[in-house]
Design brief:
It is built from twelve helices and nine strands. By secondary structure, it is an alpha/beta fold. The longest helix is centred in the N-terminal third of the chain and has 15 residues. Bound molecules: S-adenosylmethionine (SAM) and glutamine. The site of S-adenosylmethionine has 22 residues, from helix 7 and strand 4. S-adenosylmethionine binds next to helix 7 and strand 4.
Length: 284
């Protein structure tokens, strides 16, 4: 079989089972099997593929047809132009989470103190902390997760991206394992409401860890806890940054106001126009 034929067949297969980006998925999986990049496929479309690569590709195509996310099939995902290892212990990093990273970087640039102490709650693959560490050479970062499997992946990603010396990984439930004060708290916590969970696409619902997604009846359980407990771990004037889900802006805004410990509460929209990131400053 030739590259072109394998691509066309898989694209057709994926289209028929209703996947959202059939051609791209086929390209990523085939280039992974051949150890090339996507452009490599188009340089030599007539190159024959060996029997072993064909078998490997067919196996991945069959798994993708069942909804398994491409990132779990290849074992990698790009985030912030860095490469992250992923497996089923971690949520696949989402592009909208880059907005959260941008907001933290903007605040650290404005602050100018130079050596920010940053706490990330629920680091998963480590995407946020590793991206921040790669930009902020003097930052000291503590990244937590309740899942030992996730922390293993995150620690590997810190090493692979050359920032392991700037991040301490700590296992535990929210703020329980922490002491000391931070200039920044950042979190993309679980935020799917119980009743929404059943309606998630199969690749998310069946393959991604429930503990990374589910967050009580309204989906704001973690935001509320982080707002309630987080200020104790912030320096005066320190900032809290959280990713939020569709329709959660008012609820999270109310939680922040009710605490009466925060000011300068702001929301930033994602590229689809949904309020996606909230920031607040701890009162001095
Ligand atoms: N930060 C990663 C990202 O943005 O791609 C992963 C975010 S994922 C939505 C939420 C993470 O929070 C998961 O890795 C999950 O294991 C972790 N988590 C869930 N409950 C937690 C808890 N009580 N304390 C700390 N982490 C928790
Ligand atoms: N953005 C993810 C999704 O739509 C949810 C991430 C989260 O719960 N923090 O599946």
């Amino acid at each position: 079989m030739e590259i072109r034929e394998a691509l066309n067949q898989a694209t057709l297969d994926f289209t028929q089972c209703g996947l959202a980006s059939p051609r791209l998925d086929a390209e990523v999986l085939l280039s992974h099997c051949l150890g090339t990049d996507r452009y490599g496929l188009y340089r030599e479309p007539e190159r024959p593929i060996t029997g072993e690569a064909v078998r490997g590709f067919r196996h991945l195509v069959a798994r993708r047809r069942q909804g398994e996310p491409v990132a779990y099939l290849t074992g990698y995902r790009e985030f912030w132009s860095l490469t992250f290892a992923v497996n089923r212990d971690v949520l696949v990093p989402r592009p909208e989470t880059e907005i959260l990273v941008e907001e933290v970087l903007n605040a650290c640039a404005d602050d100018g103190s130079g050596r920010p102490r940053i706490l990330e709650i629920g680091t998963g693959s480590g995407a946020i902390s590793v991206a921040l560490a790669s930009e902020l050479k003097d930052a000291a970062i503590v990244a937590t997760d309740i899942s030992p499997g996730a922390l293993k992946v995150a620690a590997r990603n810190a090493v692979d991206n050359g920032v392991a010396d700037r991040i301490d990984f700590v296992r535990g439930d929210l703020f329980a394992p922490l002491k000391g004060a931070f200039d920044v708290i950042v979190s993309n916590p679980p935020y799917i409401a119980e009743r929404e969970y059943a309606h998630l696409p199969a690749d998310v619902k069946i393959f991604e860890p429930r503990g990374a997604l589910l967050a009580g009846p309204e989906g704001t359980e973690f935001h509320r806890k982080i707002v309630k407990e987080g200020w104790r771990c912030l320096t005066p004037g320190g900032r809290l940054f959280m990713e939020i889900g569709y329709g959660q802006k008012e609820r999270v805004h109310a939680a922040l106001r009710e605490m009466n410990r925060y000011e300068e509460i702001r929301f930033r929209k994602d590229y689809a126009g949904v309020a996606r990131v909230v920031t607040a400053r701890k009162k001095e």
